[in-house]
Amino acid sequence: MKAESAVTPLPGALVLVVLLASLAFSVWLFASGVRGDLQFSRARSAAMAEAHRRAASTGADPVPRAVEPQSILGLAPIPAVLTSLVVFVTALVLMFGFFVVNPNEARVLTLFGTYKGSVLENGFYWTNPFMSKKKVSRRARNLNGERIKVNDLAGNPIEIAAVVVWRVKDTYRATFEVDDYNSYVVTQSEAAVRHLAGTYPYDGHSEDPSHPVVSLRAGREQVAEVLERELQARVQNAGVEIIESRLSHLAYAPEIAGAMLQRQQADAVVSARTRIVDGAVGMVKLALERLDHDKIVELDVERRAAMVSNLLVVLCAHEGAQPVLNAGTLYT
Q: Which of 8, 112, 196, 283 has an alpha carbon within 20 to 30 A of 122's alpha carbon?
């Protein structure tokens, strides 16, 4: 695939000086030619009048003396005027070859359908006036994508949107490989967001804390990296560089938002209870092991079961346990 080719045209200031000098020269040559032609016409008229006077006095036929036109740079007055007009018109046509390249902009040059290169450095330049000079901005741009409704990996309808920061990197591809690189980026970013939403669940819970499930809500950094890579692959043909991409909006669709909120609350309660039970079992186990190791008290199976039950009730209860004093022994 062809890529851009950087070119540097002639400096515009130098060519401008030359063209202004050419215009001044053409004006001077035109004025000199007109003046010389007038002087030649007057001299010829004077010579004809003098010949008629002599003929009237002598009765002979009038024969005017020869009059030579004034030479202007080796040219007769009429050719000098025509030359000045040609130089003037040519200089005016060449004036259309000037153009300016602003910072973070480029000009794509084409001549009769042939790509001649891209001017990437800012400045004042001149090139063939018949060459097309298309302006392409290389500044960073923000694309704030619209909210779209899609299904996540679990099939739940969600609303999602992304913001993308991008710029044109290859002016040749941006100009000739796609019809309109602005709409191309918009379309491909929407397609990438739709594909991303169907790849991950909105929210996910992992039973193994060491291997968490990557989800749209919990794994925003990882999801942003995946979205950036996919977008870059999609817009590579358009000569566009993705600087940054992130999710700007993520929510369940309104029709299931209430039900999914209850589900999240239930999942949170179950997860919290699981952590509480795990911690309580560990504490009970530690207490029994310490009692056996330090030989503080001897407990049979029944009393161990009662102790485990009491400790689990105390540790897992919603409210604080009320203490009950046992005035007898462990068996009464």
A: 112
| 52 token code pair | 């008629």
Alpha carbon distance 72, 67 (integer Å): 16
Q: Which ranges constitute the DSSP H helices of the chain? A: 12-58, 77-94, 171-176, 181-197, 220-235, 254-294, 301-316
CA distance 160 to 156: 12
* Angular region, 145: left φ>0, alpha ψ -120 to 50, beta rest: beta
Q: Global pTM?
A: 0.67
How is residue 78 written in tokens?
Answer: 């009429």
Each residue's pLDDT tens digit in the chain (332 positions)? 677 888 889 999 999 999 999 999 989 888 888 888 777 777 777 777 776 677 666 766 665 666 566 767 777 778 888 888 999 999 999 999 999 999 999 999 999 989 999 999 999 999 999 999 999 999 999 999 889 998 888 888 888 999 999 999 999 999 999 999 999 999 999 999 999 988 888 876 655 555 667 788 888 888 899 999 999 999 999 999 999 999 988 888 877 666 667 766 777 777 777 777 777 778 777 777 776 777 666 666 677 677 777 666 666 666 655 666 555 555 55
d(CA 234, CA 247): 18
Measured between its terminal Cα atoms, the distance across the chain in Å is: 92
Radius of gyration for the chain, computed over Cα atoms and rounded to the nearest angstrom = 46
Angle (CA) 295-299-303 rounded to 5° is 150
Beta 157-168 vs 148-151: how paired, if at all? antiparallel
Q: What's the CA dihedral at 75, 81, 86, 87 to 10 degrees?
A: 70
How far apart, in Å, are the Cα atoms of 328 and each of 22, 55, 232?
A: 124, 171, 78
Q: Given the structure tokens 């390249």, which residue do they identify? A: 101
For 26-35, b where at least 16 C-beta lie within 10 A, e where not — what string? beebbebbee
Amino acid identity at 245: S
**Percent of residues in the chain assigned helix, strand, coil, to nearest 5:** 50, 20, 30
